[in-house]
Protein 1
Amino acid sequence: MITIKFYNYFCNPLLIEMIETYKKEITEPVGRVMAKISKIFQAKLLTRLNHLDINRSLYPLLLIESKNGMTQQELARELSCDKVQVVRIIDYLSKNDYVQRVPDTTDKRKHILKITPKAELVIPEIKNAINETSRIAFKGLSKNQVDELYKVLSLLEINLL
């Protein structure tokens, strides 16, 4: 568990005395730890991909590719986010020519999200960068430990839903 300790960085003797009197450890919340790790991971990943004109929404792009197309509603469900967020993601990917909205032939109200030829060219590189960044992140962990980490994270998600 990660902890933060209060140290005597203050000049005010009264504050120092109060801190010494009530010296405590504050446990960093698990959400904060995960957010920090996520930011570091994302920064390392984007460093590997900085020559591309895409700097976010990599996972949604990979989802669309893995399903060989999907609707915005399906994407929202997969990402556990609302329609407004999905529209922003798709607008970004569409503006950068990674995704296109294709009218559904069976339901005129729906559009199928498809990856573009440009996306097809960069997706292998994105997957490779994710795998390499993950390899670095998991350095020193056994396969069993990585598997256990994913189990624990899944349980945390289930508990919080």
Protein 2
Amino acid sequence: MDNSGSTCGKYHSISPTIPPTMDMSHGYLSETFYNDLSCVSVSMNDFSVFDGFFGRGPTGPTGPIGPQGTSAMMYKNTIISLYCMNSKTVNKDESITFEDHTAMVGNCHHVPGTSEIFLWTPGIYLVYYNVYHVEPCQLSLLKNNAILIPGSTVGSLEGMSNSSITFVMKVDKQDCTMDTGLDKVSQTVCKLQLINKGDTAITLIDEKGANNILPQISASLSVVLIHKSM
């Protein structure tokens, strides 16, 4: 065979044509063989003839559905983000209340105007909070009214500042034991609150306290499930 596709003086080409009246559910081919003595034209209306010729059998049955991917499990998820827009005093060992939330998706709940976040999926969570305050302060995330979560405490030596932290925490199955008392949440939960753990009361700063015009947050708290425990 040479580079042009000729074999022993013969030329073979297959070109597709579509008759005007043809049923489009079938293919149509016009096959022509040329050599130095003859020209033969053969037409076939069904591609299944060529399937057998080229060694392709019938389509097999559909296989079983595969397992869910890791990334899909990771972000099919619980996300909650709370904010406070007002100036307010938070006494020692008192929790910060949040007026509303920008997102509340999945196995979580917050009642506007309260301090509690309720979670009921065991797993690993990414947490971020930020507080704008007048006085020096120290803040911690409290679990189930009793446990200061390790790595959640941050503070400031100076007033007229903000204190913020990003950390990762674990919620175990045994943490989800509290009753919310809410009709909307029938499960037992893990309760989270942002607590003033400093020696004195602190005042949260809103836009007036910061001499600004546009409304601004005085505190925010976001929690995102990043890995669900099996």
Protein 3
Amino acid sequence: MRQIALIVMAVTAAACGAHQKPTASPAPKPAATATPPPTPPAFYYDPDTGATVSGPGVVGPRAVYQPRAPYPASALSDKITGEVAMNVIVDVNGRVASVSVVKSVRRDLDDAAVAAVKTWRFDPASKDGHPVRARLVATMGFYLK
């Protein structure tokens, strides 16, 4: 019985912090810093040939305006989720020239994704400092929380 009482006292003392060495307070965390904008890719896909264009002087398109699509009410009520993948052609002015779905989820989600992507704006791809048309693959996910 006496051993049980000693064990209980030792466990209680450890739980209350007895016999612990004082610890130094944690070092203050550095202030948050802003992250630089993402670097555009060093390649693009030629929309006419499908070939990957890369090398010195090549910069891929970089999105500067990229709103998300609203979740269609019909897909929301049916609890449909997934990702729509699209081929997007960006013209020399950074506007979306065409969009085609390459991986479909359901027609209403596909249509919402395509409509949103058509409003996107880009810094166009360039080769040797001159803007060029480019193809990219964009995905838009629709997920329930």
